[in-house]
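quick one, 193 residues, struct below
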Amino acid sequence: MPSRSDDPVGAALAHAATLIAQDVRALAAANPVVLIDGRSGAGKTTLAAELAASWPLAGRVQLIALDSLYPGWDGLDAGVDRALEWILRPHGRGMLGTWRRWDWERETEAESHAVDPSLGVIVEGSGILTAATAGLGDVRVWVESAEDRRKARALARDGDAYRPHWDRWAAQERRHVERDDPRTLTTRIIEIP
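---
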């Protein structure tokens, strides 16, 4: 098994998770909200999983991927709206939230999941940093990586299931970046090789 020093992406993500954990600890909040945005293949999911595994506060953290909320390949904006209504606003009011998983194979909503307002939440996914969501996120992260590297990682991960949809998904991400300027909404920007 290669060491972290042999894997610059893994090392960068591990370092980023450490920095974000410090940000969370500095908040002195029992139930912080961490929002992790970036374009496809940037490393959001791995970063979120590393952060969840090293969560610096007592108790568990709830990790929610927007991939579970997007209603299909044209649903970037709708997935963010769902996260706002079903997760972030209820959590911010101290109320139980409930979100429905999107079943990609059946192209319909599936089972419901509860979000405990007394616990921290990590929401990761393309599009999550907007003017509407930023005020509900205590730590707001943008993950940046070059397009050629992102595309290679995303297609290596998801292969033929993603390949025919890359361009249409990338167009939605471009609109999000142009419209919402998520880098300006962050508390931390992470550069991934």
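The first strand starts at residue 33 and ends at 38.
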